[in-house]
TrEMBL record:
GO cellular component: cell outer membrane
Molecular-function GO terms, alphabetical: pectinesterase activity
Span of the signal peptide: 1-27
Every Pectinesterase catalytic domain range: 30-295
One Gene Ontology biological process: cell wall modification
Protein name per UniProt: Pectinesterase
Keywords associated with the record: Aspartyl esterase, Hydrolase, Signal
SUPFAM superfamilies found in the cross-reference section: Pectin lyase-like
Region (Disordered): 280-321
Pfam family, one: Pectinesterase
Gene3D superfamilies tied to this protein: Single-stranded right-handed beta-helix, Pectin lyase-like (2.160.20.10)
Length: 321
């Protein structure tokens, strides 16, 4: 059952905050609570009930609690927002524990998002698979993002290796959030801007934050703007390595703590040299923001062409900020 709520200006703004969509004639609201006090007990059941190919936003509110399920937002489920109702993102948790050992990396995600204009706010998406030293493939994706114009605000993404996969179809924006993992925990060929977001390398041995596979024909990949980088152990974290030769990553005006391996923050991946990739920094601060020959700096003359809006605009002028 879908509850139709007549739109007022205030309701439209609340339902569409950060999506870049025009105000619809109505908003659809679905409710989820594991204890049976709402319309649906699972997040997936609410997604299944949402309208297909809709230009109007469907907001799915989720009561605080832990929802152990694999969540899929298919391509025909458009303009869906998942909104946690807890007082913090940690109180509403969507979690599962598949891994590459049984499902392959791409199919191991706890959440798959294919529907365009997706949004998530005030919740946690997690893969709590525990890495086992005896296994060869330990990747376990929390979020597999394959959607255009996706927006995440005040969310937590938790995992180990390969937490967030940003596929080539993706154009996404994340603000005021937290992403945690171990190796290559933000990876893929899509375009995504992280703003005022903390990335945390939790492995004591450290590792690279990003593994970009940006196509050579695409100008923009991953931008970290006014973000913060932390780690479990100082001096162990790299900013990234190129999954494919032309990977593009920029850390801009961010706080790089003592987490960073300052002498070598970019490293090679297989036969792909980091020096051939499009890796750079711009006006970062903090003890991890030293400069040397292994740390390419974006020239001031190019800074105006590497803003969050330049990354996100595409051909339709999308501006979720």
């Amino acid at each position: 059952m879908i509850t139709r709520v007549a739109s007022s200006a205030a309701l439209a703004v609340a339902a569409l905050a950060g999506t870049g969509l025009a105000t619809p004639a109505f908003a659809a609201t679905l409710t989820v609570a594991a204890d049976g006090s709402a319309q649906y007990r699972t997040v997936q059941a609410a997604i299944n009930a949402a309208p297909v190919n809709s230009s109007a936003r469907t907001t799915i509110t989720i009561k605080a609690g832990t929802y152990r399920e694999v969540v899929r937002v298919p391509a025909n489920k458009t303009a869906i927002t998942l909104q946690g109702l807890g007082s913090t993102p940690a109180q509403t948790v969507l979690v599962f524990n598949n891994s590459a050992t049984t499902h392959g990396t791409f199919n191991s995600a706890s959440m798959f998002v294919d529907g365009r204009d997706f949004g998530a706010t005030n919740l946690t998406i997690s893969n709590d698979y525990v890495e086992k030293p005896s296994t060869v493939d330990q990747q376990a994706v929390a979020l597999h993002l394959n959607a255009d114009r996706a927006v995440f605000r005040n969310v937590r993404l938790l995992g180990d290796q390969d937490t967030l996969l940003v596929n080539e179809k993706s154009r996404a924006y994340m603000a005021d959030s937290y992403v945690e993992g171990t190796v290559d925990f933000i990876f893929g060929g899509g375009t995504m801007v992280f703003e005022r977001t903390t990335t945390h390398e939790k492995r004591t041995a450290g590792g690279p934050i990003t593994a970009a596979s940006t196509p050579a024909t695409r100008k923009y990949g991953l931008l970290f703007y006014k973000c913060t980088v932390t780690s479990a152990v100082a001096g162990t974290t790299q900013l990234g390595r190129p999954w494919r030769p032309a990977g593009q990553v920029l850390f801009r005006e961010s706080t790089l703590t003592a987490a960073i391996r300052t002498s070598q923050p970019w490293i090679d991946m297989s036969d792909n040299s980091w020096r051939n990739a499009r890796f750079s920094e711009y006006r970062n601060t903090g003890p991890g923001a030293t400069k040397n020959s292994n740390r390419p700096q974006l020239p001031d003359s190019q800074a105006g062409d590497h803003t969050p809006q330049k990354y996100l605009a595409g051909t339709d002028g999308w501006n979720p900020r």
